[in-house]
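[job 0417] fold request received: Arsenate reductase
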Amino acid sequence: MEIWVNPACSKCRSAVSLLDEAGAEYTVRRYLEEPPTAAELGEVLDRLGLEPWDVARTAEPVAKELGLKEWPKDPANRDRWIEAMVQHPKLIQRPIITADDGTTVVARTPEAVRSVLPG
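[job 0417] inference complete; emitting structure tokens
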């Protein structure tokens, strides 16, 4: 299991605490320091069943600089969104947990974190 975190984020810290309490084995990826590649982000989005604009943090200052809210949300622009998120990982919603069985969630709630814990 891998969790993408920003240590300054309270939701990330809560998710890590829940994983620890459950005794889960996981790897922490500080995605701001080690951003995903476009292929990795695309794979995570496919596992989530979401599009990049569904997990984009459009209130971030860099999103405003890029005019992200005005970008088209369609298949023709999917790669543009992914590339922006790779170049500016602060745009990626957090935390994201990818479980060993392929289950992937945006773990902003305790319920979402628990949903990827083994049996």
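[job 0417] notes: The mean pLDDT is 96. The chain has two domains: 1-31+94-119, 37-92.
[job 0417] exit 0
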